[in-house]
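ARCHIVE CARD
Drawer: 12
Card no.: 0347
Subject: one protein chain, sequence and derived structure
Cross-reference: see card 0346
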Amino acid sequence: MNKKAIIFGFLIGLATTFIGISIYTFIIGLSLDLSLQDITNRIVSTSVLGKRASIGVLLNLPVFYFFLNKKKEDYAKGILLAIVLVALIFILNKL
């Protein structure tokens, strides 16, 4: 088990989740004709962040399968850990 690869996969998982949240919020913001400043405020807003994070995590799926197909299981483990961490954060946030 390569711990560096797991940590790197974890960071990739967190980054792709944030990118997914940003892309989703940007697309919705453009469809609602919001300004760029309003869109960035919604990205960091915590009111509906859990709903957007569940869609943002979907961006991790192709990255996860890419690493599995390239036989980089440790990177895939890190991405899976990031998905679980994001899920736990938002479950605890709901309580």
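Annotation on reverse: The radius of gyration is 15 Å. Residues 50 and 89 are 9 Å apart (CA to CA).
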